Amino acid sequence: MGDFAAGLTQHALGYLKDVQQELAERKLEALRLYEPMPLQDEFHRSLCSERIVIGGNRCMAGEQELVDPETGEARRIDSIEGPFKVTSMVDGKTAVYTASAPFIKGLGKLYAIDLSNGQQLRATLEHRVLCDTGWESVERAWQSRLPLKSASGEPVLIERVEYLRMDYYWDITVPGPHNYLAAGVFSHNSGKSLSTFVEDARAATGQDPYNKYPKEDGNLVIVGRGWQHVGMVVYPMLFKAGAFRIIKDEVTGQWRAFRPATDEHRRKESKPAPPLIPPRFVKDFSWVLKNAGYLNKATLINGWTVHCFSSEGEPPQGFQADIVHIDEDISNEAWVGEMLARLADRKGRFVWSAMPHSKNDALLGLCERAEKEVENNNPEPMIKKFTLRFLDNAHIDQEEKRKNIERWSSLGQDELRMRAEGEFTTESTLMYPNFNLAVHVLPRAELPQVPDDWTKYAAIDPGHTVMATLFAAVPPDERFLLFYDELYIRNANAMIWGEEFCKKAKNQSIRTLIMDMHGGALRDLGSGRLPHELYSEQLRKHGFKAEITGTSFIPGSDDIPARTALVRQMMHIRGDGSTRFKILEGTCPNLIRELKRYRKKTTTVNGQVYVTDEPYTRGETHATQCSEYMCAYEPKYHKPPKSYGPDPWWVKWLSERQKRKRAEAPDFIFLGAAGAKKDV
Q: 151 and 294, same structural domain?
């Protein structure tokens, strides 16, 4: 360059140095150095219009044995100290890798999972295993009969799942492949904020490698819980250095992302990465409160605009967005629906990164939609959930992870599971925390339809906004109570219910009708009649009668503690994995949805939240209350009356003949003795 520079003026030399400096700075830009983990990369590649990013997966029981591929020795995971060798799957081939020392991750329900290869895996149902379709939870692999991949290449099926106990579960970390061989199949050892803000920065700077967003003139909307969250999280993550750390590679001498697994001994040589959105992109800032970092709007040179909002206010209307990012919890759930509507015109994308707060029904609802897409095996889902665990964050060293685990453990199991595992911590507030789809749902393959000789019952929760009815059956051996059908009618009345109920109950022998008499005792404003009277009238109109109650109803139990206790008792999982509370697969979606969300009341005293034992019945709890009335009635088996089929032809003929005789008879009768008629 010396000969080239000799012929340049001082002004040109200064300009050349500025260009060289600019190029050097661009090489150091954070988006160029960012190295996503596998699950983070999957999130970035996804073309789903809605993506939910939360925390992680549970793992194995302490007695689970792992085999050292070099020595062949099998050791319990809770007895291993220090790094050890495991077999991992990489690009379809097995290889030997070094795993970190096992550590306790938390407390949860452990199950014995019997495999078709003759081995047994002891883990949580959320534990992820490698299937032909990719990484799936044990629960999903079991329910869907998905074949698991093994080291031998032979497919392995889950044959039986049995509940063991509530206990601590363990995990290991395998740098690189992030999987290991256990019981002959491959398990995953499983970032949230960094990946979503990188997505924001890629979109706003026109550098998304998958071309999901326009290069220029786009709108990015970020919603935080409050302005303090915007100032302390959103603004620093996007516009300040330090979203992650970088270090010079010992071989190439080039800057790259810091990798704690291999670079921990050189941590002092690392430094904070430059801002995700470089200063050269920023044209102007608009502030709510500049000193606190309360960013209102950032205008970029490529025409993109970054808008920041607090969820404590009302959501704005009338604008268009290319990407909406809700970060963490929100105060007003109306933001979710409004932000989704703002994406329609530009076919934008929605991202929500959050801790799994149990109080947030909007987040629960979106996650349920994502799980439904998985259940339906939709190849092009509209919404997808990504689970990124704190313990898998490669940019946090092991010692700091252990410190945080100890801190969160001291605050309670819910805090630990929410922050370390990314689980919805609803168990302490749910009315029925032991409700489990894998246990309490009876597969259709085992019972295609309910036999006619089972005793059937129906429970009704009357209402106008939502009217719910559950149908249940008891088999001859009374081994369980099976909910096999439901009615869930919005904007209902007695006439609508009567038509729909009789359609379902037609040709069924139902022994008893049970009704919530609190709702049934509220008089109709128009007629002044009681709802249960109107419902009975509709049954008479359609010619339906129950075996015991006829067209009337037995009042449902008013003893709330007793009826909820009976539901818990029936949901109890026995030692053999069976339970008395069953739902026939695919028949009662609203009951399942409500059971997942049915919570206890909470009270706040001096800022501390206390959970009561009473159910929180505001909102949609209609089907769950029907199930409570049903369980409180304690249905028993009674042999249904025999059905002889249609009457023979002569029954109708005889009836009509008798009608004709009555019609032809004189309209008077003789009161005297019958005898010979004498002429006078």
A: no
